[in-house]
Write a structure and sequence with these properties.
CATH class of the largest domain: Mainly Beta
Number of strands: 29
Strand content: 25-35%
Shape: elongated
Bound molecules: adenosine-5'-triphosphate
CATH architecture of the largest domain: Sandwich
Structural class: alpha+beta
CATH topology of the largest domain: Tumour Suppressor Smad4
Helix content: 10-25%
Largest sheet: 12 strands, antiparallel
Number of helices: 12
Distance between the termini: 29 Å
Radius of gyration: 28 Å
Length: 594
């Protein structure tokens, strides 16, 4: 990695003889600084603003002075201290750097009287630090720190992560080896302090990618507006380089290409599988992993979603879980690439879906039928519009609003018993047998086609203990919705259904829950529009619309009376037929913020 040379400062500018070049006086690695350096280190204010770029004034009243009291707390303990030239600073400037146990890189300009203002980088925002020999002849080395703190752009009210890199020249010793060693010591310590803290959460095991690590990046060049490859080269690849994450890029050529690759490929060579595309490609990957003979191990391979599609619901959800404000396009991609560079991963629930015709699917995002699914499918042709495709689709579907008839049953979250432990006899309400449902014949219950290929390794797949076969009524402790006419039925297991649609704000990656929404027939078009507009902020339930129902569930069954429209699984189309599903808690792993 080359040291940063900012625009306007040519590499040749600083080239001088070794004796003149090596003016900084850095102490040996880990040594307690002495003399003037020590005075400077101790004079640093204990409370310095984080992430403030160099040369910005310090906090009012926080100017360090010779009489300032030394820091006491553990977090203020200085682990390394040294004075280095900042590359690219104009005019040329040296900085006293202190690396503290509290994960701050404190910087104070020196060489001017009084001492210059101080600033600090919060290493929690740091994705990497590289050290090396300066390319120019001479003994100097360097280390570069790469941070992505939140900053407010002039174009946007909400702060987003933006790159902040600093390169320091190490030139204290006459010998190049010594300078390089010192630069590497700093880089190593900075990387150590920048490593994320693994959250401790009862019953939840988080993980951290190893370093160095090698990831597989699957990229759909047709996703969203068709710029995924360009975004990879301009934004993702440089960040991976800064974080020292090696990658293999695989660009898909057709639908199911990624699925075939992960179904058959040797996954042991990669520490994680990242998907730069929409949710559809990740759906392929999840199901491809489940089709492997070693699916139990394969599905635990950390996955990563990098938004390159039009919906990017999982990326938006993970951004939301990290406490970040809503982000779009490059900002969202930067946030998600940042998570990947930090390497923290969390368990994620998957939903196992079974259809009456014998299909078994694994879903990480949503299952739907009716209005929302129709918008998703009908707006496919407006993919070039990016996220705006859903607005166009919503307006279109509002014009030709349809009613979907069927029977919806579910197991609410509070009821936790499985079929085996539940009272066995079906309830009065549910005592009739499929294919008749509340007097309506279920004409569309399909049978597995003779000779249709069996799903691979079906026998060893995880059981769905909450579900019973379709030819039996749902267990009696389930709830069946009395109404049978709907505008939309949508079970979502993440917070967002699109980058600006917060459908289930309280959802979590591993809450063991599906958030089931159903909208009964009778709602006006205006009412429906209001719901969708409120969904942008996740306030749709506050409208108290009598037609909109929400219930967190563990399992559901949907028995359509007619094969109206298509269903969707993670945004991908599914032929309309009876479907049931249940949550499998913490079934796979996904790169996430803490
Ligand atoms: N090279 C390719 N050409 C055409 N289609 C592809 C290719 N690679 C993958 N696909 C298919 O494209 C579909 C949509 O992909 P993806 O989810 O990446 O984008 P999107 O639909 O724009 O995003 P979102 O799902 O967030 O709306 C998937 O079903 C996938 O199988």
């Amino acid at each position: 990695m080359k040291p940063e040379t900012p625009p306007g400062v040519s590499r040749g500018q600083g080239a001088r003889s070794p004796s003149r070049r090596c003016r900084s006086r850095a102490p040996a690695a880990g040594a307690v600084p002495a003399g003037a350096s020590l005075a400077l280190a101790l004079a640093l204010p204990r409370q310095v603003p984080l992430d403030r770029p160099l040369n910005e004034p310090a906090m009012e009243g926080a100017q360090p002075g010779p009489g300032a009291s030394p820091p006491h707390s553990d977090s203020a303990e200085v682990l390394l201290h040294g004075v280095f030239a900042l590359l690219g600073a104009a005019p040329k400037a040296s900085y006293a750097l202190s690396l503290t146990r509290g994960r701050e890189l404190r910087m104070q300009r020196v060489g001017s009287a009084p001492a210059g203002p101080s600033a600090a980088l919060d290493l929690a925002d740091c994705i990497g630090c590289a050290a090396g020999r300066e390319p120019r002849p001479g003994p100097a080395a360097y280390f570069s720190v790469f941070c992505y703190p939140f900053r407010k752009g002039w174009w946007d009210a909400s702060p987003s992560r933006q790159r902040l890199a600093r390169t320091f020249r190490v030139c204290a010793a006459q010998e190049a080896e010594d300078n390089l060693k010192l630069a590497e010591t700093w880089a190593g310590k900075i990387r150590e302090l920048a490593a994320p803290r693994i959250p401790r959460q009862e019953g939840v095991t988080w993980g951290l990618l190893p370093r160095p690590c090698h990831i597989l990046v699957l990229l759909n060049p047709q996703s969203g507006t068709g710029h995924a490859l360009q975004l990879f080269h301009s934004l993702v690849q440089p960040m991976l380089a800064e974080a020292d994450v090696a990658f293999t890029l695989f660009v898909t050529e057709r639908p199911n290409h990624a699925r075939e690759l992960v179904r058959a490929g040797d996954l042991s060579q990669w520490d994680a599988v990242a998907v730069l595309a929409g949710d559809g490609l990740l759906y392929e990957v999840v199901n491809g992993l489940m089709e492997r003979e070693d699916w139990q191990a394969a599905i635990k391979k950390p996955l990563c979603t990098l938004p390159g599609g039009s919906g990017n619901a999982l990326s938006a959800s993970i951004n939301h879980y990290a406490g970040n404000t809503q982000a779009f396009r490059k900002e969202l991609l930067t946030n998600c690439t940042y998570f990947l560079c930090k390497g923290l991963y969390a368990p994620m629930d998957l939903v196992s879906l079974s259809t009456a015709s014998g299909k078994r699917l694994f879903s990480f995002l949503s299952f739907g039928w009716g209005f929302i699914s129709d918008v998703d499918i009908a707006s496919e042709k407006y993919r070039q519009l990016g996220n705006a495709r859903f607005t166009v689709g919503t307006i279109q579907q509002l014009a030709g609003l349809k009613v979907y008839k069927g029977r919806l049953s579910y197991l609410p979250m509070e009821t936790s018993s499985s079929v085996s432990s539940a009272p066995g006899s079906p309830s009065e309400q549910n005592s009739h047998h499929v294919p008749c449902s509340n007097g309506h014949p279920l004409h569309i219950l399909p049978q597995p086609a003779p000779g249709a290929p069996e799903p691979p390794h079906k026998g060893s797949w995880p059981e769905d203990p909450l579900l019973v076969p379709f030819d039996q009524p749902v267990p009696k402790h389930w709830t069946t919705v009395p109404e049978e006419e709907f505008i939309s039925i949508f079970a979502i297991y993440q917070s967002h259904v699109g980058a600006d649609f917060t459908m289930a704000p309280t959802a979590k990656l591993h809450d063991g829950s599906m958030h089931l929404f159903y909208l009964k027939a009778g709602v006006s078009r205006l009412g429906l529009l209001r719901i969708f507009l409120a969904m942008e902020k996740g306030t749709h339930l506050d409208l108290n619309c009598p037609h909109l129902h929400y219930v967190p569930v563990r399992a559901f069954r949907l028995e359509p009376f007619t094969s109206t429209g298509l269903m969707t699984v993670d945004g991908e189309p599914l032929a309309c037929e009876p479907v049931q599903g249940q949550v499998h808690n913490q079934f796979c792993s996904i790169i996430s913020g803490s």
